[in-house]
Amino acid sequence: MSFSKKLKQLLTYTPDKNNWDGLIETYKPWLPVSKKTPIITLKEGATPLIEVKSISNRIGKGTTVYVKYDGLNPTGSFKDRGMTMAISKAKEAGCEVVICASTGNTSASAAAYASKGGMKSFVIIPDGYVAQGKLAQALVYGAEVLAIKGNFDKALDIVRKLSEKYPITLVNSVNPYRLQGQKTAAFEIIENLGNAPDWLCIPMGNAGNISAYWMGFQEFFHAGKSKHLPRMMGFQASGSAPLVEGKSISNPETIATAIRIGNPVNKEKALLAKKESNGKFSSVSDSEIINAYKILGKEEGIFCEPASAASVAGLLKIKDDVPKNSTIVCVLTGNGLKDPDCAIKNNDSIFHTGIEPEVSLISKKMGF
Ligand SMILES: *Cc1c(COP(=O)(O)O)cnc(C)c1O
Questions:
Q1: Residue 220 backbone dihedrals phi, psi, to 5 degrees
Q2: Whose CA is nearest to atom 1 of ligand 1?
Q3: Which one of 47, 78, 183 would you pick to mutate in the ligand 1 pocket, going by the greatest count of ligand atoms within 8 A of its CB?
Q4: How far is CA 139 from CA 112, 136, 142, in A?
Q5: What is the pLDDT of residue 19?
């Protein structure tokens, strides 16, 4: 290649991410949108798939583990994938007000996309059980926040009733457009790997995301874009594991507040995904979740929220079941910055405080 040609190529080169117009624009033929749909986007999607050797090594047997780091979406969670669809369709239908119940991330995402689309948003959250970062986001993005003395399941009951009675669009994962948007994460994984993984490990709360991934994997498989379908491995926190125990939990408890849900609305879909994919649902304790959370931070430089670490904790828990030479993807659903309280309480790092600003003193503390 001539020097001038090469120079021209360099000067005109633009990384993919700059051409990225968000997931609706990218996957239009696969989504229920038309020319009339106003696309409300914050350029969500195209999140990285990162190999995590510290996890692969703990499993051995030639396993390759990746994380789908969906905490790098615009508001810091995968909820943005569903919200760009739900809000765009709400806008298309002429809606002016949206509402959701939330353990935090749905409210942050709904508030951001509603603002972008020029709509008002109401969010109903369990008082005292929403991580600080998420609450801050909903407020900054301009939502009207109502914190109730009750858990997520109660909040969802209330928003369902409100949206039946008043001209408000419900944007929880009972809204079918949410799952349509969320299925695009499976498309991205297949495009990155050139095939589907053998296992997909994913945390489950309302179980919308596992249902959406299964839909995405099936659609791309039937279109000939992958050679096989993955087994869907779903994980819940042991204090909040209705899908593992096979019954609703009236007082779910876990440090992973994003999956603190006792009666998942997408239960039937998730059970079907498990059955059709020959998958498996298991639970992990809070201490197993925190262990995985620390490994990802300390050994991989990846800061996710506790609910997200449940996917990796789950994989480590059932590692004896992993077949030789498997490719596994764990979904990291949300960004660790959302929950700074949890982070500061749960790490093994050394933190000296109140030190006099003197070099000699500090160097001594540092061990020199
Ligand atoms: C919403 C959420 C989940 C659970 O997803 P579901 O679709 O409700 O199963 C898991 N992790 C994080 C960080 C979330 O925000």
A1: -70, -35
A2: 258
A3: 78
A4: 10, 5, 5
A5: 84
